[in-house]
Design a protein that fits this description.
With 176 residues, the chain is of the alpha/beta class. The protein is 30% helix and 19% strand. Strand 5 and strand 6 form a beta hairpin.
Length: 176
């Protein structure tokens, strides 16, 4: 059993159609996510989804039901802004605003880390490009304990803690 993390899948979110054009649309993006997710995740793995799952509709529910693993949701800003509706109980094993598990604090939007934690894993920032994200990139570089699991930054694949650490180092080295 492994523990994996992902955020910001934005399944069938109308606002994400421009982001998903490179995949050939929302359906093609969903199939890419399913393939990537299921190729690395076993049925007994725990996958923490750190928010912004997507539109609460049958298309999204269908995709989520096809994903392997025991899924736990940490609510994101889009999950709350669009009017939080209870997710079907066969999709998520639990739904939280934030959660600490084995010294890892999980929250959608980056925040301060509680005492006793080793890592802060978050989503919310899909990219660190552009002028507006320059300050966030500087913080991300300096906060060695902070790891971003936004789907766009991690290949639309749930990642282990070790993989998130390597992904961050690779991304920062490419920017130096």
């Amino acid at each position: 059993m492994q523990v994996r993390y992902i955020a910001d899948t934005h399944l069938y979110d109308p606002a994400s159609s421009l982001w998903r054009a490179e995949y050939g649309g929302l359906d093609a993006y969903a199939e890419n996510l399913i393939c990537n997710w299921n190729n690395c995740t076993d049925v007994d793995d725990i996958v923490f989804h750190l928010g912004d799952v997507g539109e609460q509709c049958e298309l999204t529910y269908s995709v989520l039901r096809r994903l392997k693993g025991n899924k736990v949701l940490i609510l994101g800003n889009h999950d709350v802004e669009h009017g939080y509706v209870k997710w079907p109980s066969d999709i998520f094993q639990g739904v939280y605003h934030e959660l600490t598990h084995s010294g890892v604090h999980m929250v959608h939007k980056p925040s301060s880390m509680p005492d006793g934690c080793i890592y802060l894993i978050h989503g919310h920032h899909h990219t660190y490009s552009g002028i507006m994200m320059h300050n966030e990139l500087n913080k991300y570089q300096q906060d060695t304990y902070r790891l971003n699991c936004a789907a766009d930054l991690i290949g639309n694949t749930p990642r282990t803690l070790r993989e998130l650490i390597i992904n961050k180092e690779t991304m920062l080295m490419a920017r130096r």
